[in-house]
Write a structure and sequence with these properties.
This protein has about 375 residues and is mainly α. It has two domains: about 290 residues, no CATH class; about 80 residues, no CATH class. About 60% of the residues lie in helices and about 5% in strands. The protein has 14 helices and four strands. It has a two-stranded antiparallel sheet. A two-stranded antiparallel sheet has the order 3-4. The relative contact order is 0.11.
């Protein structure tokens, strides 16, 4: 396992680059998943726009005006945060030993923050000054949904992260009450369905504001969501972030590689298990005492399979909402299935002990079935 890219490069290529400690392996794959999803979503939105599934929104913009005080202040603040926290890691003694702890603490480098803030503000001033006209002009432009993918991705990322943290702490309430601030600020501990639910609510508000049909967008984003999920699970496996299965000591079929059947997650980012002998990976020197099902691998494979199904169906299902209905059903089935061999907190509901993910998965399946019949009845063109 590779907690961050530093250990990956050192182990795979024998290259020692301490600055790579700042790039968490899980975060790296999550970033890749968002980029892949944004690219795929843009393609689908453009295809649907050409078919008339979406309309544009006219908005008035002003061009040729100099940078406003608000522009300069906002860019200074963003630059200061970047310099104070991210760049500050490279200029603060000892920060590279545990960059995540540094970033998620109150520590930072004020001087580097000020320099970065002034640089960003200056860059904004230069950019606006280069485009400045003697008399600023107001123009009416058409904004299509595909032009908003950047905003949609950022909104989904921020709201999704907040939702994932909230649902994770609700699922692990005992752990949360012991250290509320630490658990809220910790980079680990994320629940996918929490992120999906809160991001969906945030995007519903955004779509209503910009007059984008939610159901048509849902169809367009369904394949991208599944691809992003599959890629994100690669990050879970590479980092060893705790999303593994129950202990598996059963006999391995000869045709299955050992790492696909039972795995101890050496050097896992959660630092769980027992100490490893002769380990020089600092704090990442633990592995599980017994092999467990590597469920992130299974979810990656199932996620890619579901993505392929959705991608093939996207042009064949005639009515709006049907593709998203299929996504909800298959997503729910996949997650409910994998929960049978995953380690998760369970609830006691009338003698039944489901996990949070199982409960949500059942609701997704039911919603997906209802949406399918509703879409088939209304017969709105996709």
């Amino acid at each position: 396992m590779y907690p961050n890219l530093y250990y990956a490069f050192k182990d795979l290529f024998n290259i020692d680059l301490p600055f790579l400690k700042i790039i968490n392996s899980f975060g790296f794959f999550v970033a890749l998943s968002f980029l892949a999803a944004a690219w795929l979503l843009t393609k689908e939105l453009k295809r649907k726009q050409a078919r008339g599934s979406f309309i544009y929104e006219e908005t008035i913009i002003e061009t040729g005006a100099p940078a406003s005080t608000a522009d300069l202040l906002l860019n200074f603040i963003l630059g200061f945060i970047l310099g104070y926290k991210i760049l500050g890691v490279f200029f603060t003694e000892g920060a590279l030993n545990d960059p995540q702890a540094f970033i998620f603490s109150s520590k930072g480098n004020v001087l580097i923050g000020l320099i970065a803030g002034l640089f960003f503000a200056g860059l904004k001033w230069w950019e606006k000054n280069k485009q400045k006209l003697e008399k600023p002009e107001k123009r009416t432009v058409r904004i299509w949904p595909s032009d908003r993918v950047g905003d949609i991705t950022i909104l989904a990322a921020i709201s999704g992260f907040i939702g994932a943290k909230i649902f994770d702490n609700l699922e692990n309430w005992d752990r949360f009450v012991q250290d509320p601030i630490g658990n809220l600020l910790s980079p680990s501990g994320l629940t996918f369905y929490g992120g999906l639910i809160v991001a969906a609510l945030a995007l519903a508000w955004y779509f209503k504001k910009h007059k984008i049909k939610f159901i048509n967008f849902a169809d367009a984003v369904a394949p991208a969501l599944m691809l992003a999920y599959a890629l994100g699970r690669i990050g879970c496996q590479v980092a060893g972030d705790g999303d593994w299965g129950i202990v598996n000591t059963s006999a391995k079929p000869s045709w299955i590689p050992q790492g696909f059947w039972s795995y101890t997650y050496p050097h896992n980012v959660n630092k769980e298990g027992v100490p490893m002998a002769n380990c020089d990976w600092g704090e990442y020197c633990n592995q599980l005492p017994q092999g467990v099902y590597p469920t992130p691998i299974y979810e990656t494979l199932m996620g890619l399979l579901i993505f392929a199904v959705l991608w093939m169906l996207r042009k064949k299902l005639p009515f709006a909402g049907q593709l998203f209905a299929v996504y909800l059903i298959l997503n729910g089935i996949e997650r409910f299935t994998i929960e049978q061999i995953r380690v998760n907190t369970t609830y006691n509901i009338g003698g039944i002990h489901p996990t949070q993910a199982e409960i949500i998965a059942v609701f997704l399946i039911i919603i997906g079935i209802l949406l399918w019949f509703r879409s088939s009845k209304k017969k709105i063109a996709a």
